UniProtKB/TrEMBL annotation:
Residues 1-35, 41-128 form the Ig-like domain. One of its GO terms (cellular component) is membrane. This is CNTN1 protein. InterPro entries: Ig-like_dom, Ig-like_dom_sf, Ig-like_fold, Ig_I-set, Ig_sub, Ig_sub2, Striated_Muscle_Regulatory. The lineage of its organism: Eukaryota, Metazoa, Chordata, Craniata, Vertebrata.
Length: 190
């Protein structure tokens, strides 16, 4: 196939490689550089978020994305407790931590540990729970005669520490109230 395979790479394998293809009609060359990358895990460029918010009863994914070569092995702790995969907690292959059905007991300091044959590093963030946003009054189906006006309402409850934004869409496309102000009007009730 004209394929070159190198197993168990070392730094000495780095360099410029050249493939030469030859037949009775001539000869052709192609070059490629092989760089060997090896570094201990580091969170300098991509630290964990210091504050992670999760909705009560919802699902949260805490990312852990250090720079490392080769790919590190990951482990997680909450405070001093080492976390393992279970019914509500899962550590993904990419290092992310997933928690489902979040409760108040899940709040706390989470640390991601990354280790490869070059070294190890960790990064920590704090998980805080918020009240889930809920639609308390959903828009109702409306039959309107052509040319008349129609009003639709949407009311939601939310955590008071967070801002709330309403987004309306028509058939899956978000309505731009600035561009379509002659047809649509948004009324915000406090």
């Amino acid at each position: 196939k004209g394929e070159l395979r190198i197993q168990s790479l070392t730094f000495e394998d780095a360099g410029m490689y050249q493939c030469i293809a030859e037949n009775t009609h001539g000869i052709i060359y192609a070059n490629a550089e092989l760089k060997i990358v090896a570094s201990p895990p580091t969170f300098e460029l991509n630290p964990m978020k210091k504050k992670i918010l999760a909705a009560k009863g919802g699902r949260v994914i805490i990312e852990c994305k250090p720079k490392a070569a080769p790919k590190p092995k990951f482990s997680w702790s909450k405070g001093t407790e080492l976390l393992v995969n279970g019914s509500r907690i899962r550590i993904w292959d990419d290092g992310s931590l997933e928690i489902i059905n979040v409760t108040k007991l899940d709040e706390g300091r989470y640390t991601c540990f990354a280790e490869n044959n070059r070294g190890k590093a960790n990064s920590t963030g704090v998980l805080e729970m918020t009240e889930a946003t809920r639609i308390t009054l959903a828009p109702l189906n409306v039959d309107v005669t052509v040319g008349e006006n129609a009003t639709m309402q949407c009311i939601a409850s939310h955590d008071p520490t967070l801002d709330l934004t309403f987004i309306w869409s028509l058939n899956g496309f978000v309505i731009d109230f600035e561009k379509e102000h002659e047809h649509y009007e948004r009324n915000v009730m406090v």
